[in-house]
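Re: the 456-residue chain
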Amino acid sequence: MSQAVVLIHGIGEQKPMSTLRSFVKAVLPPAENGREQYRSKPDRMSELFELRRLTSTGRSSTHFYEYYWAYHVEGTTWWHLFQWFTGLLFRRPSDVPSGLKTIWGFTWMALIGIVISIPLGYMAAIYTAVTTLPHFSFVWIVGMILLLTLQGFILYWVGDAARYLSPSPENIALRQKVRSEGVRLLRRLHRSHEYERIIVVGHSLGSVIGYDIITRLWLDYHQSSSFKSRLTSISELLDAHQHPQPIIGHELPRKGKALVSDENGNALGDFRIAQLDGWKEQRYYRNPWRISDFVTIGSPLVHAMLLLASSSKDFNDRKQQRELLTCPPVSDNKGYGYTDAPIALPHSDKKYSPHMLHHAAVFGVTRWSNLYFPAFGGLFGDFIGGPLRPVLGPGIRDIPVRSNSWRRFTPLTHTDYWETNRLSGQAASVPGCRDALEALKDALGLDRLYEYRVNE
C-alpha cells in the first residue's frame, strides 16, 4: 500500500524542492542504523523538470510531491498591490474579519495621521531631511538597504497574494495557470492508480490554492461511482432490508447536522469518522476519488470574507449558493447529494436509485484539519492564519499550536510550523494548544495507512 502527500508552498521567492525537503525531514521518523530517511527519485507526475519525488524508506511507502507554482507569478507591480490593498481597506468595519480588525484599524490610523501631517509640514520636513542626506553616508546606505529590503518583501512576498487573490482582468490568466497545473497534478496522481490515499497540504497561500484545486477536481469525480459493478451486492443488501449506501445516504448528513449544536467536540469526532467511512463507501462502489485529507497550515482562508468576497453578505450568499465550499457541505432535502436514475437489479424486478454526492460536497468525504499559531490581540503571532470552523464550517478540525521560539510573538512564526529547532517541550502543557510538529504529524496520519484499506 502506498500514499501520496502533495505539499503546496506559500508566498515568497521559493526555490523548487526547498520547502518540500524541510517538510519531509520534519514529518518522517529520523534515519536509523545508517539508513536514509528518504530517497529522491524522478517526479513523473509533475510538468516541471526542477522537481523530484521524495519517498519514505519505512514499511508503508509514502511519496511526497511538491506543487511548485511560484514561477507563474512574475511582473508584479506597485499598481497590482495598490488595487488589492485599496479593495481590502475600503470596507465597512462589519465586513472585516475579527482577526484583522486590529491591523485594519491601525492602518487607517496611520493613513489618517499621514494626511493630517501634510498641511502641518511634517511630511515636507521628512522629505527634505531624506533628500539632503549625503550620498553613501552610513545613514544613507542603511536607509537604502532597508528600503530595498522592504520593497522586495512587498513585491515578491505580499505581491504573490495580491496577484492570486485579486480576480482583476490582468490576474485571471495567472490564476488560471496556477489552478490548472495543480488540478492536472492531482488528476495524474489519481489516474496512476498507485495510491490508496492522497493527502493535500497547503501552507499559507498554498492552502487557498489547495482549496481551489480540490474543489475544482471534485467536479470530475463526484459522479464517477460504478454501481453496476456491485449489482449483486446491492441486491443482496436490499433483500436483507439493508441500505446499500448507509453512510452517504443517511449517516453522513445526520452526523453533519449534529455539528451545529456540538459543545463538547464529540460531534466533530463522529462526523470525521463518518467522512472516512463515506470515503471508503465511495471507493467500494469504484469511485476513484483518493483525496482523504486536506491539511491547511497558517491559512489566510480565516480571512475569506475579506479575501474572497466583497462583503459579509456576499460571503454568506456564496457559501449558501455552493460557490464557496464548506465543511460540512451545504445540504438540501436529499442530504449532501441527490438520487440518480434507477438501476435495474439482476434476477429481480426491483430497482435501486444510487445516492450521489453533489458538486459541492467534496468535504463530505475529504476531512479537513487546520493548524494555526494563535495571534494575541490580532497582532502578536501568526495573524495570517487562524481558526477556520467559524468561517468555512464546523466540520473542520481546528488545531491551535505552539513553539518555544521568541518568534511566536511575531508574524515570523508563520514559517515555523515544521521547524524542528523551534519545537517546544512545554507546548503540550499550554491549555488548548499542542506542539506544532506533533500536531502536524497527527493530522497527516502517515502511520495510519491501514485505516484506509477498502474491503472488497
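The chain is about 40% helix and 15% strand.
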